[in-house]
Amino acid sequence: MRLGIDLGGTKIEIIALGDGGETLLRQRIATPQGDYLATVMAIAGLVEQVENTLGQRGTLGIGIPGAESLHSGLIKNANSTCLIGQPLRRDLQALLQREVRLANDANCFALSEAVDGAGRDAPIVFGVILGTGVGGGIVVKRQVLTGANAIAGEWGHNPLPLPADEDLPLPRCYCGRHGCIETYLSGPGLAADHRRHSGQTLDAATIAARAEAGDAACEASMQRYEKRLGRALAGVINILDPQVIVLGGGLSQIARLYRNVPQFCGEHVFSDVFYNKIVPPQHGDSSGVRGAAWLWD
Q1: Which of 59, 101, 154, 195 is the most buried (most CB within 10 A)?
Q2: What pLDDT is stored for residue 210 in this prediction?
Q3: What is the model's pLDDT at position 10?
Q4: What is the pLDDT of residue 213?
């Protein structure tokens, strides 16, 4: 049995997978806010509860909103700030008396879709998170790429390629830089761009819905978004050339992206053909927690 946990800012979710990848049990609880010790104890309590219910012990993988430093073993780059600087894996291993595998939540998403989802059988899968932030994960032959600094796939903090007048001034990112892809392609980034150009304060889902209904300002914002996403993904494709790109996060539910973005990618890809597939996730919001379990594939 494989256990996977998705440690989010608002909820902690656990899944138990059988040998064939079938779901044996799935459960979620609220994440203790700003309390590291309470978070660790909540994770351990979930594992104990699930194993008692199912009557067996499992391997454990955990997807986290950050990364584990390869130098210190402490958590870094986490938007759940109570995790930063903490030895999460060491503490959980001591509590649960077993090896625990950690990975960035975007890596878990990509792994899930590569193993038995929309990227099944593809040698290289790039999993994209388009949500509150922009992240990514790379899976090659069912193995997650971590990288020398544990940041492989973090394309959201590259600068937006070829900024035009409509992209200026470069927005400031929380990371301290300006013009990061995340500041344009996240949900808040789309909302901020629409506000700058139209004066309207709308969230990303409303902008997309109104564009479909014929709202000219919202349609213009969606077209800017799609062109930026195409340029940004083309940079990834020119380096990685994945057979499949799977979009995740809240904005992955916008159907028009799958119709329109490939042509904008193709304009900037260094090739005479564009064979890369851009697809929605097969497992939806289950992908992160399933991928955590598959860290023991």
Answers
A1: 154
A2: 98
A3: 83
A4: 98
End-to-end CA separation in angstroms for the chain: 11
User: What stretches in the chain show pLDDT beneath 70?
Assistant: none
List the structure tokens of 156.
């959201």
Which single residue is written with the structure tokens 């996240």? Answer: 186
Q: Is residue 214 classed exposed, middle or buried when 0-12, 13-18 and 19+ CB atoms within 10 A define those classes?
A: exposed
Q: What is the pLDDT of residue 225?
A: 98
Name which of 56, 71, 125 is nearest 276 in CA terms: 125
CB neighbour burial string for 167-178, b if at least 16 within 10 angstroms, e if fewer: beeebebeeeee
Pairwise CA distance, residues 184 & 107, whole Å? 21
Q: Dump the DSSP string for 204-241.
A: HHHHHHHHHTT-HHHHHHHHHHHHHHHHHHHHHHHHH-
Gap between the Cα atoms of 227 and 235, Å rounded: 13
User: Residue with structure tokens 């969230």?
Assistant: 203
Distance between CA atoms of residues 125 and 114, nearest Å: 6
Q: Which residues contact 170 (CB under 8 A, 6 or more apart)?
A: 159, 160, 163, 178, 179, 183
What is the model's pLDDT at position 8?
86
Question: By the 8 A CB rule, do 190 and 221 touch?
Answer: yes
Report which residue type is found at 241: D
The residue type of 154 is E
CA dist., res. 83 & res. 49, Å (int): 23
Distance CA 256, CA 296 (A): 35
pLDDT at 175: 87
C-alpha to C-alpha distance for 127 and 283, rounded to whole angstroms: 12
Rounded to the nearest angstrom, the gap between the alpha carbon of residue 108 and the centroid of all alpha carbons in its chain is: 8
- Tell how many helices (H) and how many strands (E) occur in the chain: 9, 12
Q: What are the pLDDT digits (tens) for 34-53?
A: 999 999 999 999 999 999 99
pTM, to two decimals: 0.90
